[in-house]
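Problem 12. The chain below contains 466 residues. Write out its predicted structure in token notation.
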Amino acid sequence: ETTAVEVEVVDEYGLSVVADEPPGEGTVIVEVEEKEQQWEVTGTEYIGEFKEGTEIKLEAIPDESYVFDYWMGIDSQSPEESIIIYESMTVRSKFVEDTAVEFADPELEEAVREAIDKPEGTIYQSEVADLESLNARGRGIESLEGIQHLQSLISLDLSSRYDADEGEWKYNEISDIAPLSELNHLGRLILADNQVEDISALSGMTDLYNLNLSRNSVSDISPLSGLEELSMLFIDRNQVSDISPLLDINYQKDDVYIDMEYNDLDLREGLEDVQNIRELENMDVDVDYGEIIELVDLVIPEGEQTLEAGETFEFTALAVYEDDSHVGVTGEAKWTCDDTDVVEMGEDGKVAGVEYGTTTVYAKWKGKTASSVVNVEEGEVKNYIKGKVTGGDPPEILADAVITVYQNGELIASTSCDHLGEFSLKVPLGTYDVQADSSGYNPETKENVEVKIFEEAEIYFYLTED
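Solution.
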């Protein structure tokens, strides 16, 4: 009797490893733990075949004056990597020459040397590649050129410090922060007590959570609008006059604090800066801004007015504050009146007499109200039809053109153009047909020309030759 025996067939795959050529740039250590095998590859070597699922560890070790860059064949930039065999593959390590790093400012270089514990000699990229924190406070640094090589920096302090031995504060004198734009991993950046004006270099630092710009000369903070990780922001004692970019930030942190005291903000109640502060507070942002100046009154300085029917007048509204300052809010105020048969209200405090009578005009803004009496005398409400007439080819001014105004077929008014071909007629409010005619030209009529109380009708004619 024959017995069938099942044999599990396990696929095996080949692995080749290449240490970047030419030789002398580095070595790759290959280790298979389950077989307790290890290879040291300095050129190209076929390691062998392995069962599917075998874990193999790789370590790239650069030779002197070289650094590991990345692996080809696997998606990784880590010098130590593990792979699982599931197909035949070739893995190649890529080494690059270790470059010297130079700093334009000797004081910045000295700070880096202290951080990597290298008092002298050439500084290489590999020596600063893992530097995550740098304290360069109060060293008299003027230039940041070279700092862009510190790609792993997470924390950078370039502010001032107190020198207890000398009994005085020490400062940096940094104005150009463009080299910082390449440090995309920065989470904490302290630039207080410098001479910075332009912060556009910060716009791409999306990992920033703590940014201190206190006591600089910054006026435009729009580069901060995309920094969603911010939880602490200090922009106090600068020249900021517009904080609206802070409203565009989609804050990801629960506790956000912003210090914006002593800037060029207008802290009078009801104005844009204060409204923006209130909106930030509604977004659960803790804001230090100083003291709001209270609004105490709203006034119409022109007082009582007497108008003829059809005459217009423009009121203004002034907001008065507790510090005795005032600001015009005519365009922001809401304007109304008691009797729209007596006057018609236009935009921005404009009022026109309609018919005989007396009414009160009101301006309302931020909970305050001001009023003024308007008296309208008898008369007919009129406004202008204005325009210009040209004709011919090439076009020329038709100074002798006659303008005729009709309403429902009835002649209302007529006039002749002046030497510039321009005309002006004052007619009662309503809708008209307006005709232009000139000797040797075909007449043209504009229909349904509307004359409104606050809006002159402007029309232009171009006549064709007979």
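Discussion. Helices lie at 106-116, 125-128, 272-282. Students who got a different answer should revisit the alignment rule from Section 12.3.
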